[in-house]
Specification:
The protein is built from 12 helices and 3 strands, in the order αααααααααβββααα. By secondary structure, the chain is mainly alpha-helical. It has 3 domains: about 20-195, Ferritin, core subunit, four-helix bundle (Ferritin); about 210-250, no CATH class; about 265-320, no CATH class. It starts with 18 loop residues before the first helix and ends in a 12-residue tail after the last helix.
Protein backbone atom coordinates (compact mmCIF):
# COMPACT_ATOMS: atom_id res chain seq x y z
CA UNK A 1 0.00 0.00 0.00
CA UNK A 2 1.28 3.45 -0.83
CA UNK A 3 0.68 6.82 0.83
CA UNK A 4 1.40 10.23 -0.58
CA UNK A 5 2.21 13.75 0.53
CA UNK A 6 1.14 16.71 -1.61
CA UNK A 7 4.58 18.25 -1.15
CA UNK A 8 7.52 17.20 -3.31
CA UNK A 9 10.33 15.13 -1.81
CA UNK A 10 12.78 18.02 -2.36
CA UNK A 11 12.17 21.61 -3.57
CA UNK A 12 11.70 21.98 -7.33
CA UNK A 13 12.34 25.55 -8.49
CA UNK A 14 12.72 27.01 -11.96
CA UNK A 15 13.81 30.63 -12.12
CA UNK A 16 14.39 30.85 -15.87
CA UNK A 17 11.95 28.56 -17.75
CA UNK A 18 13.51 26.95 -20.80
CA UNK A 19 11.52 24.66 -23.13
CA UNK A 20 14.72 23.30 -24.66
CA UNK A 21 15.91 22.19 -21.24
CA UNK A 22 12.49 20.68 -20.60
CA UNK A 23 13.12 18.46 -23.60
CA UNK A 24 16.52 17.44 -22.17
CA UNK A 25 14.94 16.60 -18.81
CA UNK A 26 12.69 14.07 -20.57
CA UNK A 27 15.72 11.74 -20.79
CA UNK A 28 15.97 11.68 -17.00
CA UNK A 29 12.26 10.94 -16.78
CA UNK A 30 11.39 8.45 -19.52
CA UNK A 31 14.77 7.47 -20.97
CA UNK A 32 16.67 4.25 -20.42
CA UNK A 33 18.75 5.98 -17.72
CA UNK A 34 15.69 7.67 -16.21
CA UNK A 35 13.67 7.61 -13.04
CA UNK A 36 10.68 5.72 -14.42
CA UNK A 37 12.97 2.82 -15.28
CA UNK A 38 14.59 2.51 -11.83
CA UNK A 39 11.29 3.15 -10.04
CA UNK A 40 9.64 0.22 -11.81
CA UNK A 41 12.77 -1.91 -11.58
CA UNK A 42 13.01 -1.66 -7.80
CA UNK A 43 9.28 -2.05 -7.28
CA UNK A 44 9.00 -5.14 -9.47
CA UNK A 45 12.05 -6.66 -7.81
CA UNK A 46 10.39 -6.09 -4.44
CA UNK A 47 7.06 -7.51 -5.61
CA UNK A 48 8.87 -10.63 -6.88
CA UNK A 49 11.26 -11.05 -3.94
CA UNK A 50 11.23 -14.55 -2.43
CA UNK A 51 14.34 -14.38 -0.21
CA UNK A 52 14.96 -12.67 3.15
CA UNK A 53 12.29 -10.04 3.78
CA UNK A 54 14.83 -7.29 4.52
CA UNK A 55 15.87 -7.24 0.87
CA UNK A 56 12.25 -6.96 -0.24
CA UNK A 57 11.82 -4.08 2.22
CA UNK A 58 14.98 -2.38 0.96
CA UNK A 59 13.79 -2.54 -2.63
CA UNK A 60 10.29 -1.37 -1.72
CA UNK A 61 11.64 1.60 0.26
CA UNK A 62 13.86 2.78 -2.57
CA UNK A 63 11.29 2.08 -5.28
CA UNK A 64 8.82 4.24 -3.39
CA UNK A 65 11.45 6.98 -3.03
CA UNK A 66 11.90 6.86 -6.81
CA UNK A 67 8.20 7.61 -7.30
CA UNK A 68 8.99 10.96 -5.71
CA UNK A 69 11.89 11.46 -8.12
CA UNK A 70 9.57 10.84 -11.05
CA UNK A 71 7.26 13.54 -9.67
CA UNK A 72 10.18 15.95 -9.27
CA UNK A 73 11.33 15.58 -12.87
CA UNK A 74 7.77 15.80 -14.21
CA UNK A 75 7.26 18.99 -12.18
CA UNK A 76 10.57 20.43 -13.39
CA UNK A 77 9.59 19.75 -17.00
CA UNK A 78 6.19 21.41 -16.56
CA UNK A 79 7.74 24.46 -14.90
CA UNK A 80 10.31 24.82 -17.68
CA UNK A 81 7.47 24.80 -20.20
CA UNK A 82 5.71 27.72 -18.54
CA UNK A 83 8.01 30.26 -20.15
CA UNK A 84 10.54 30.61 -22.93
CA UNK A 85 13.76 32.47 -23.78
CA UNK A 86 13.61 36.13 -24.77
CA UNK A 87 13.99 35.50 -28.49
CA UNK A 88 11.11 33.06 -28.46
CA UNK A 89 8.99 35.43 -26.37
CA UNK A 90 9.44 38.17 -28.99
CA UNK A 91 8.42 35.79 -31.75
CA UNK A 92 5.47 34.65 -29.65
CA UNK A 93 4.18 38.20 -29.51
CA UNK A 94 3.61 38.05 -33.25
CA UNK A 95 2.43 34.45 -33.51
CA UNK A 96 0.76 31.67 -31.54
CA UNK A 97 2.83 31.38 -28.32
CA UNK A 98 2.43 27.60 -28.16
CA UNK A 99 3.66 27.14 -31.72
CA UNK A 100 6.51 29.53 -30.91
CA UNK A 101 7.49 27.42 -27.92
CA UNK A 102 7.63 24.31 -30.12
CA UNK A 103 9.74 26.18 -32.66
CA UNK A 104 11.96 27.25 -29.77
CA UNK A 105 13.03 23.66 -29.16
CA UNK A 106 10.53 21.96 -26.88
CA UNK A 107 9.20 18.53 -27.75
CA UNK A 108 5.96 18.89 -29.79
CA UNK A 109 4.36 16.10 -27.75
CA UNK A 110 4.83 18.11 -24.56
CA UNK A 111 2.21 20.46 -26.03
CA UNK A 112 0.23 18.17 -28.35
CA UNK A 113 -0.16 15.25 -25.91
CA UNK A 114 0.84 16.74 -22.58
CA UNK A 115 -0.79 20.16 -22.73
CA UNK A 116 2.50 21.85 -21.79
CA UNK A 117 3.50 19.06 -19.41
CA UNK A 118 5.80 16.08 -19.10
CA UNK A 119 5.18 12.95 -21.17
CA UNK A 120 6.35 9.38 -20.70
CA UNK A 121 9.16 9.48 -23.25
CA UNK A 122 12.86 10.25 -23.62
CA UNK A 123 14.46 13.41 -24.98
CA UNK A 124 14.10 12.20 -28.58
CA UNK A 125 10.40 11.43 -28.25
CA UNK A 126 10.77 7.66 -27.94
CA UNK A 127 8.16 6.22 -25.53
CA UNK A 128 9.27 4.54 -22.33
CA UNK A 129 10.03 0.86 -22.91
CA UNK A 130 9.11 -1.62 -20.20
CA UNK A 131 11.67 -4.13 -21.48
CA UNK A 132 14.37 -1.95 -19.86
CA UNK A 133 13.08 -3.01 -16.44
CA UNK A 134 15.18 -5.83 -14.96
CA UNK A 135 13.62 -8.16 -12.39
CA UNK A 136 15.38 -11.49 -12.82
CA UNK A 137 14.45 -13.35 -9.64
CA UNK A 138 18.17 -13.56 -8.77
CA UNK A 139 19.21 -11.11 -6.07
CA UNK A 140 22.87 -10.87 -7.12
CA UNK A 141 22.00 -10.29 -10.77
CA UNK A 142 19.41 -7.69 -9.78
CA UNK A 143 21.75 -5.82 -7.42
CA UNK A 144 24.45 -5.56 -10.09
CA UNK A 145 21.86 -4.38 -12.60
CA UNK A 146 20.63 -1.80 -10.08
CA UNK A 147 24.14 -0.49 -9.44
CA UNK A 148 24.68 -0.16 -13.19
CA UNK A 149 21.36 1.68 -13.59
CA UNK A 150 22.35 4.13 -10.86
CA UNK A 151 25.77 4.67 -12.45
CA UNK A 152 24.31 5.64 -15.82
CA UNK A 153 21.66 7.70 -14.03
CA UNK A 154 24.35 9.69 -12.18
CA UNK A 155 26.23 10.28 -15.42
CA UNK A 156 23.05 11.66 -17.02
CA UNK A 157 22.25 13.87 -14.02
CA UNK A 158 25.80 15.28 -14.04
CA UNK A 159 25.46 16.18 -17.73
CA UNK A 160 22.10 17.84 -17.09
CA UNK A 161 23.69 19.76 -14.19
CA UNK A 162 26.35 21.14 -16.55
CA UNK A 163 23.76 22.07 -19.19
CA UNK A 164 21.86 24.59 -17.06
CA UNK A 165 22.60 27.86 -15.28
CA UNK A 166 19.27 27.87 -13.49
CA UNK A 167 19.97 27.88 -9.71
CA UNK A 168 16.81 25.93 -8.91
CA UNK A 169 17.57 23.19 -11.41
CA UNK A 170 21.15 22.89 -10.20
CA UNK A 171 19.94 22.59 -6.61
CA UNK A 172 17.43 19.85 -7.48
CA UNK A 173 19.97 17.92 -9.53
CA UNK A 174 22.56 18.22 -6.77
CA UNK A 175 20.13 16.45 -4.45
CA UNK A 176 19.26 13.75 -6.98
CA UNK A 177 22.94 13.07 -7.75
CA UNK A 178 23.54 12.57 -4.03
CA UNK A 179 20.65 10.11 -3.80
CA UNK A 180 21.96 8.17 -6.80
CA UNK A 181 25.36 7.94 -5.08
CA UNK A 182 23.71 6.35 -2.05
CA UNK A 183 21.59 3.99 -4.11
CA UNK A 184 24.58 2.84 -6.14
CA UNK A 185 26.43 1.97 -2.94
CA UNK A 186 23.50 0.32 -1.16
CA UNK A 187 23.01 -2.18 -3.97
CA UNK A 188 26.71 -3.05 -3.94
CA UNK A 189 26.52 -3.28 -0.13
CA UNK A 190 23.97 -6.07 -0.55
CA UNK A 191 26.46 -7.98 -2.70
CA UNK A 192 29.08 -7.47 0.02
CA UNK A 193 26.67 -8.65 2.71
CA UNK A 194 25.97 -11.80 0.70
CA UNK A 195 29.68 -12.62 0.78
CA UNK A 196 31.05 -10.40 -1.96
CA UNK A 197 31.68 -11.20 -5.59
CA UNK A 198 34.03 -14.04 -4.62
CA UNK A 199 31.12 -15.92 -3.05
CA UNK A 200 28.40 -14.78 -5.45
CA UNK A 201 30.23 -15.60 -8.68
CA UNK A 202 29.41 -17.24 -10.94
CA UNK A 203 25.84 -15.95 -10.99
CA UNK A 204 23.69 -17.93 -10.44
CA UNK A 205 25.75 -19.78 -7.86
CA UNK A 206 22.92 -22.29 -7.36
CA UNK A 207 23.56 -23.98 -10.72
CA UNK A 208 25.66 -27.15 -10.83
CA UNK A 209 28.56 -25.67 -12.76
CA UNK A 210 30.12 -29.09 -13.29
CA UNK A 211 27.60 -29.32 -16.13
CA UNK A 212 29.24 -26.46 -18.01
CA UNK A 213 32.22 -26.72 -20.33
CA UNK A 214 34.60 -25.69 -17.57
CA UNK A 215 37.59 -25.56 -19.91
CA UNK A 216 36.08 -22.35 -21.27
CA UNK A 217 34.76 -20.89 -17.99
CA UNK A 218 37.81 -18.73 -17.27
CA UNK A 219 39.22 -18.25 -20.77
CA UNK A 220 39.36 -14.88 -22.49
CA UNK A 221 38.71 -15.34 -26.22
CA UNK A 222 40.60 -13.12 -28.62
CA UNK A 223 38.89 -12.68 -31.99
CA UNK A 224 41.72 -10.56 -33.41
CA UNK A 225 43.37 -11.75 -36.61
CA UNK A 226 46.82 -13.27 -36.42
CA UNK A 227 49.46 -10.66 -35.82
CA UNK A 228 47.33 -8.58 -33.44
CA UNK A 229 48.14 -9.20 -29.81
CA UNK A 230 45.16 -9.82 -27.49
CA UNK A 231 44.54 -7.11 -24.87
CA UNK A 232 46.18 -7.92 -21.54
CA UNK A 233 44.71 -7.10 -18.14
CA UNK A 234 43.24 -8.50 -14.94
CA UNK A 235 40.89 -10.62 -17.07
CA UNK A 236 43.62 -12.37 -19.07
CA UNK A 237 45.81 -13.95 -16.38
CA UNK A 238 45.94 -14.57 -12.64
CA UNK A 239 43.32 -16.05 -10.30
CA UNK A 240 39.69 -15.80 -11.40
CA UNK A 241 37.33 -13.64 -9.34
CA UNK A 242 35.39 -16.71 -8.19
CA UNK A 243 38.62 -18.37 -7.02
CA UNK A 244 37.93 -21.50 -9.01
CA UNK A 245 40.67 -21.30 -11.65
CA UNK A 246 43.28 -19.14 -13.37
CA UNK A 247 42.37 -16.75 -16.16
CA UNK A 248 43.95 -17.56 -19.51
CA UNK A 249 43.83 -16.21 -23.04
CA UNK A 250 43.38 -18.11 -26.28
CA UNK A 251 42.65 -17.19 -29.87
CA UNK A 252 39.13 -18.19 -30.84
CA UNK A 253 38.90 -20.68 -33.66
CA UNK A 254 35.79 -22.19 -35.22
CA UNK A 255 34.82 -25.33 -33.33
CA UNK A 256 31.55 -26.01 -35.12
CA UNK A 257 30.50 -26.72 -38.69
CA UNK A 258 28.90 -24.59 -41.37
CA UNK A 259 25.14 -24.45 -40.64
CA UNK A 260 23.04 -26.37 -43.15
CA UNK A 261 19.35 -25.61 -43.05
CA UNK A 262 16.59 -27.50 -44.82
CA UNK A 263 15.27 -25.91 -48.04
CA UNK A 264 12.40 -23.42 -47.75
CA UNK A 265 9.05 -25.02 -47.05
CA UNK A 266 6.38 -24.43 -49.71
CA UNK A 267 4.08 -22.79 -47.15
CA UNK A 268 6.70 -20.07 -46.50
CA UNK A 269 6.39 -18.91 -50.13
CA UNK A 270 10.05 -18.24 -50.80
CA UNK A 271 11.11 -17.56 -54.37
CA UNK A 272 11.16 -20.58 -56.68
CA UNK A 273 14.87 -20.04 -57.28
CA UNK A 274 15.49 -20.26 -53.53
CA UNK A 275 13.49 -23.46 -53.26
CA UNK A 276 15.24 -25.14 -56.19
CA UNK A 277 18.64 -23.95 -55.01
CA UNK A 278 17.96 -25.25 -51.53
CA UNK A 279 16.97 -28.66 -52.84
CA UNK A 280 20.07 -28.77 -55.04
CA UNK A 281 22.28 -27.78 -52.13
CA UNK A 282 20.87 -30.50 -49.91
CA UNK A 283 21.13 -33.09 -52.71
CA UNK A 284 24.79 -32.15 -53.26
CA UNK A 285 25.52 -32.84 -49.62
CA UNK A 286 25.21 -36.57 -50.29
CA UNK A 287 23.75 -39.51 -48.41
CA UNK A 288 24.52 -38.03 -44.98
CA UNK A 289 21.90 -35.38 -45.67
CA UNK A 290 19.16 -37.56 -47.12
CA UNK A 291 17.20 -37.26 -43.92
CA UNK A 292 17.23 -33.49 -44.26
CA UNK A 293 16.12 -33.58 -47.88
CA UNK A 294 13.35 -36.12 -47.44
CA UNK A 295 12.30 -35.51 -43.86
CA UNK A 296 13.28 -39.07 -43.08
CA UNK A 297 14.67 -40.71 -39.98
CA UNK A 298 17.84 -38.65 -39.82
CA UNK A 299 16.43 -36.55 -37.00
CA UNK A 300 16.04 -33.35 -39.04
CA UNK A 301 12.83 -32.64 -40.89
CA UNK A 302 13.18 -31.62 -44.53
CA UNK A 303 11.04 -29.03 -46.24
CA UNK A 304 8.30 -31.53 -47.08
CA UNK A 305 8.23 -32.97 -43.55
CA UNK A 306 8.24 -29.54 -41.92
CA UNK A 307 5.54 -28.31 -44.28
CA UNK A 308 3.33 -31.28 -43.53
CA UNK A 309 3.85 -30.84 -39.79
CA UNK A 310 2.94 -27.13 -39.94
CA UNK A 311 -0.13 -27.79 -42.10
CA UNK A 312 -1.36 -30.53 -39.76
CA UNK A 313 -0.80 -28.30 -36.72
CA UNK A 314 -2.74 -25.44 -38.27
CA UNK A 315 -5.62 -27.76 -39.19
CA UNK A 316 -5.71 -29.11 -35.64
CA UNK A 317 -5.78 -25.61 -34.19
CA UNK A 318 -8.54 -24.56 -36.56
CA UNK A 319 -10.62 -27.62 -35.65
CA UNK A 320 -10.20 -26.92 -31.93
CA UNK A 321 -11.31 -23.31 -32.38
CA UNK A 322 -14.37 -24.27 -34.41
CA UNK A 323 -15.22 -27.23 -32.20
CA UNK A 324 -14.54 -29.91 -34.83
CA UNK A 325 -12.33 -32.35 -33.03
CA UNK A 326 -10.06 -32.12 -30.01
CA UNK A 327 -9.64 -34.60 -27.24
CA UNK A 328 -12.66 -33.85 -25.10
CA UNK A 329 -15.25 -31.77 -26.82
CA UNK A 330 -16.59 -34.02 -29.57
CA UNK A 331 -17.67 -32.32 -32.77
CA UNK A 332 -20.37 -29.86 -33.59
CA UNK A 333 -23.15 -30.70 -35.97
CA UNK A 334 -22.75 -29.19 -39.40
Amino acid sequence: MFYHDKRTQYPVRVENPNPVYAKMLQQALGGVEGEIRVMLQYLFQSFNSRGPSKYRDLLLETGTEEIGHVEMFATAIALNLEGSPAAVQEDAARRNPLVAAVMGGMSPRQYLSGGMGAVCQDSEGNPFNGSWVVSSGNIAADMLSNASAEATGIALACRLYEMTDDPGMKDMLSYLIARDVMHQQQWLAVIEELGGLHQQLPIPNSFDHSKEKTEFSHTFFSTAVDGIDPPQGRWSSGPSLDGKAEFRTMRLRAMGEEPQLAPPIPQAFAQMEEMRGGQERVAAMGTSSQGMAAGGSGGTLGSEGIGTRITDSLKTMANEVTGRGGSGGGSKAE
